[in-house]
Amino acid sequence: MNRLEAMRILVAAVDAGSLSAASRQLRIPLATVSRRVSDLEEHLGVRLLLRGTRKLTPTDAGRDYVASCRRILEDLVEAERTATGEYRAPQGELIISAPLVVGRHHVVPVLVEFLQAYPKIRARIQLSDRVSNLLEEHVDAAVRLGKLPDSDIIATRIALISRVLCASPVYLASHGVPKEPNDLVSHECITYEGYSAADRWEFRSGQTSQWIQVASRLTVNSAEAAVIAAIADAGIARALSDQVAEPLKSGALVRLLEAFEPPPMPVSLVYPMQRHVPLKLRAFLDFATPRLRQRLGYESPKNS
């Protein structure tokens, strides 16, 4: 039995909540996952997991053993990084995740500049509006939009971005200009399956939030597609201010209900909490943070 492999599978199964979920995540057969866990239990002579119909539950012995496995696997990663020199000089591969538009317009140019400054570092960037799991997907750092949940990640704010309502002059000439959020129920809205409920839009009403259920004839899964559709007179879209800066400037889109816009949304550069931050990651964070703030027009607070 390869004990390290079995430990990795056990930890993945506990984190995923089931053997089948671990099988999908690790891309190995379910029978192999089950067999490796059973091999560990037989080797130790103790039950590690209670296999329910919906979820795995570690036994007391299993909980302690999984915690020990995590430390062993983390120590192994640290040893490998030390051996390859990641703590002596910035080198190795960086995996970065970012939303599509912010990533393409801002993160990619900064990353290219970073690679020119650090020739021993390679990089892979994942552009997607889906929120990646940093640990499971081995992502070194990510740009995240919106309020961050409590978790084992370190976050540095790099911007505040407004959520802007807009439509084309042609659409507004045909359908009228909404004066308040409730007017949207009689308009054709372009909804985006992104960071929140697609057809429930938040607005500011005094010091509180107001949520409006909008009518939609077109739903897209890309923020960029929503902007393109709005320019093509398809209706009213909601997008990030950075995504519509050029169409607003050119007059292709008109900003609507500005007085009712919700508070700006934070944009953060995040990375997993870890005992030792590799020099390649530390170099990227130090290099990218001020440049992304500058590109996104954010003046960092003191001591940030």
Automatic annotation (TrEMBL):
GO molecular function, one term: sequence-specific DNA binding
Keyword Amino-acid biosynthesis attached: no
PROSITE patterns: HTH_LYSR
Residue ranges constituting the HTH lysR-type domain according to the UniProt record: 1-59
GO biological process: DNA-templated transcription
Key words, A-Z: DNA-binding, Transcription, Transcription regulation
InterPro entries tied to this protein: LysR-type_TF_proteobact-type, LysR_HTH_N, LysR_subst-bd, WH-like_DNA-bd_sf, WH_DNA-bd_sf
Family the UniProt entry places it in: Belongs to the LysR transcriptional regulatory family.
Name recorded for this polypeptide: LysR family transcriptional regulator
